[in-house]
Structure prediction request, 307 residues.
Amino acid sequence: MTEHRTQIKIVGEILDTATHEIDEHEGTTITHIIRKANISHGRLSTILNNLVSQGLLEQVNSKRSYRYKTSSSGREFLVAYKTFREFSDDFGLTI
Amino acid sequence: MEFFLEIILNLVGLLVGIVVGTISYIGFKNTGSPTLFRISIAFFAIGIGFGILATGFILDDFIFKTGDINRGISTLGVASQTVGYWFIAFSHTIRTFFPKSRYLRSIGAIPLFLVSFNYVENILRAVSFILLVYGAIETLISYIQGRKKTTLFVAIGLGLLGFGEFIGWYSFVFPETILYVFSILIKIGGLISVGIPVSKIPLRKISFDENL
Prediction:
């Protein structure tokens, strides 16, 4: 049975990818995020725009494509997200 | 002795409810998770319920000295706790709690006006018991899937709260026995067990939302 992921869980996975999976250009490509976070391109574009406008992600311009990396406030959010994901897991619930 | 234990139980319940509710609310403010918002409402309601009961027992012990808590205060406290247990059960995607028929829904509230506070309190306690058993089973299923020890503690805690309620009913049948004291001790154990996840929160490592 496939697990239903909440919006916040998807955001957590995107930020986690953009924090730990950065390349030599200090960013992550959209293709890489799509593969790691298992999300469609259309949906990812909307979420990425929101995350950039909220200051959780930074857009890094390189020659060929846009790359993304987690900002400092994004990293703080990621720490809080992981902590409270554990907390809601303790109650048998999904964050 | 029973009165003293009741006050201890309700103060522990107040503390656990407010602490878990506050941590969940901080989590909600930092992540925007609706699940954490529901947990915070649940535990604030449970904490406030225990607080109301504690106030009732303390008022009677020090001022009224009737030997029993005021039924109105008691019903209010139990009602608040039931709301909290409902939110825990609701978070486990309880879907068909209320009858679907409009007629049944319209007459569903009538018994509340026809029966005394004592009956309402017993009905609420019965509903709480069902919700606690439901919550305990769902949490236990989550433990089986994830094998997290703290999840098991929460499941055991909810189960103990339900079991304590169940034992409490027997004290109506067999009054003046040790069953009532036993039920209170079981509930205190349950509350402590439910509060264990709070100890896992590394509060110093999180920079909380400045707007809080």
